Fold this protein.
Amino acid sequence: MDSTSQTYEFEHLSGQVIPILVRLLRDGQLNKQTVAETIVLMGAYGEQTLVNIYGKEPDCNLKLRTCIVRALALSNVNNASIDFVIEMLFKASR
């Protein structure tokens, strides 16, 4: 299996797994930090998903927002979505 087909397989798999992980992040009894970090490690789609969740989450939900910010520290700087991650982290720091 060449790297292109492996990348396609991973992206296809992450598209199926991330919605499940998002439900666990919001509603599950699992460690939210671990779930958020797993989402980030799923690649650019995972990073963008967490940025979108963070933007929609009310300020009063500090536990979830903190987990997301900490998880985004694991973002891959080589992904195209890194600009969105950095912008969101900058806004969060104010």
